[in-house]
Amino acid sequence: MISATHTHSGPAGYLDQVLYQVTSYGIVPGEREALAAGIVSAIVAAHNDLSASSLEIGVGQLFDANINRSPPSYLANPAEERALYNGNTDTNMTQLAVRDAAGNLRGAASWFAVHGTSMNNTNDLVSGDNKGFASYLWELAQGSDFVAAFGQTNAGDVSPNTNGPVCQDTGAPCDGGKESCGGNILLCIAHGPGFTSAGDLGGDFASTRIIGTKQFETAREIAASGTGVTTTGPVLFRHAFVDMTDVVLPDGNHTCKPAMGYSFAAGTTDGVATQIAWQGDNTTNYDNPLIDIARDILHPPSAELTACQAPKPILLATGEMTFPYDWDPHVLPLQIFVVGRKFVIIGFPSEITTMSGRRLRKSTLDALIAGGTVDADAHIVIAGLSNHYASYVTTFEEYGVQRYEGASTLFGPHTLQAYQSLFSQMATSFSDPSASLAPGTPPADVKDLSFITAVVLDTTPIGSSFGAVTIQPPAVAHTGDTVTATFQCSHPRPGPGGPGSFMTVDVLNGGEWAVFLDDAGWDTKFHWKREGSSESLCVVTWNVGATVNVPAGTYRLTYNGVHTTFGFHASHSGSTDAFQ
Ligand SMILES: *[C@@H]1O[C@H](CO)[C@@H](O)[C@H](O)[C@H]1NC(C)=O
Ligand SMILES: *[C@@H]1O[C@H](CO)[C@@H](O)[C@H](O)[C@H]1NC(C)=O
Ligand SMILES: *[C@@H]1O[C@H](CO)[C@@H](O)[C@H](O)[C@H]1NC(C)=O
Ligand SMILES: *[C@@H]1O[C@H](CO)[C@@H](O)[C@H](O)[C@H]1NC(C)=O
């Protein structure tokens, strides 16, 4: 099970469907290979480190770290159902911790429902966002033998921007229905707790820190609390590739081919997409006829798709768009792990809303308990965005409101019921093999297109060379300073070379330079800029001591790159003068 978290700051262009390639102009050459290589090396390292361990389940509460970003949708759920819960987001953090035979904590996966969108969609630095920051902090605190994973669970309608949506021009609340300010949705933005004023230039970094730190601290408290429950027994699994476009439910309802509604184009208050539609848009006659014309040029939705997806007004008939290949997935991987008698993980290939997640957890766990596969006090988590990505899943009632999440629920109003039915069958199949789903076949590989110009040539000015330092750092720096150096560099595609880092902070230890921080660190940044047609300048910065304490000593900044000369690649590096 490979489970991702949502970030607006990740590299793009590696999924097979057109919709997920639009913003990156198709596939990004080398991107998928780099991700796959990293994932495979992590799996190999884990496999080579197998040893007898115990698995401990813990649950803690985290408040003030998430808010619901689609309250009008949530309120469409039945009042009796809403009354069962404290609020419109889940505040539980559920943890599976790994201890070695001596009882030492070796790793933990901690699921908490919040989007990784503290870094906003105008940031262009690669970042693991609040989940990545939580992981970074805990691994720093615990030492190198420890792995901390922070999973995104039923966070489909859950934002980390806890200050809530506000009109950026007046400071007044947005109109809650359309999330607009006098008709302008671009002004209605929710900021995280780190923003101190409109236009705050570091606000999203500060928010990432705050929301990430809260998740880290809660996870560490759960592991240290001594209240964990051990789960023992076999690890069981089921996996199936299912064509989600025509799942027939016992009541006769069925799913549809994929389609995106108008509000998909509006985005959310975490990141407005375009001004052509608003959230909750359920009319097909939009004020601006150009949108309908643009839609019909791409592909007019068929009458069958329109009826099946109702009340969703279809903007993109992605399920009927196959040029140059599928715009949205049709066949999806469904997976479930039963870890001993007391822990269950649903590998879910989409982002699922708060109430949808509660329903899916309950129906799946009920089936497992009824079959005697797990104990009555077993815990269940949804690992969202697992094994593939297929946008959002809402409840039937939320779908009717057609906000961003409902507009992005691909397979029609009964998408959640279909998933509940399929996961119940998988759960039942552990005790009754006749309930098993067919294993299915994975979707065929496609020959992805890329519209990104290849890097043809990197050069340096005459008399300079790759890795030359054009601006040196100061001779002395202190905790709290930002140290900066500029290097003559190359286009950062195809990468830093080998398993390397684009930059490092090195420390002098007994006459030898050793890496102190790299580009995965939170205190370091690497910026690249093209100069003219083939030259590049790279700025490396280090916020000394912001996250990682820095002992007095001798340091330098190093840059690593690979330059391209008409299809040939060569690596290079450069270091600044030493500084104190
Ligand atoms: C939160 O965890 C507690 C303790 O395991 C559990 O009783 C409760 O049902 C959970 N809440 C939700 C919304 O899942
Ligand atoms: C994103 O955050 C930065 C500050 O970190 C801010 O300048 C920018 O306006 C924000 N953009 C949006 C769309 O919220
Ligand atoms: C389909 O779903 C709707 C809404 O949940 C329900 O009212 C209806 O009875 C279901 N069955 C059929 C055959 O339409
Ligand atoms: C659109 O939504 C409004 C407000 O919720 C509702 O009154 C109207 O009936 C809906 N229209 C359609 C076509 O579903």
Q: What does this protein look like?
A:
This protein has helices at 31-48, 71-74, 79-82, 129-142, 203-224, 289-298, 303-309, 354-370, 396-401, 404-407, 415-429; strands at residues 53-61, 67-68, 92-100, 105-112, 147-152, 158-159, 165-167, 188-190, 229-231, 235-243, 260-261, 267-268, 271-272, 314-316, 331-339, 343-347, 351-352, 379-383, 392-393, 469-471, 482-489, 503-509, 512-518, 524-531, 535-543, 555-565, 568-575. It has 580 residues and is α+β, with helices and mostly antiparallel strands. The chain folds into 2 domains: 18-242 and 328-435, no CATH class; 468-575, Neutral/alkaline non-lysosomal ceramidase, C-terminal domain (Immunoglobulin-like, Sandwich). The strands form 9 sheets. It has a 5-stranded mixed β-sheet with strand order 5-4-3-1-9. Strand 12 and strand 13 (271-272) form a beta hairpin. Helix 4 (129-142) packs across helix 5 and helix 8 packs parallel to helix 11 (415-429). The longest helix is centred in the middle third of the chain and has 22 residues, at 203-224. The chain is globular and about 75 Å long. The structure holds 2-acetamido-2-deoxy-beta-D-glucopyranose (4 copies). One 2-acetamido-2-deoxy-beta-D-glucopyranose (NAG) is lined by residues 59, 85, 90, 92.
Describe the structure using short key phrases.
alpha+beta, binds 2-acetamido-2-deoxy-beta-D-glucopyranose, metal ion binding, 2 domains, 580 residues, 21% helix, 5-stranded mixed sheet, Neutral ceramidase
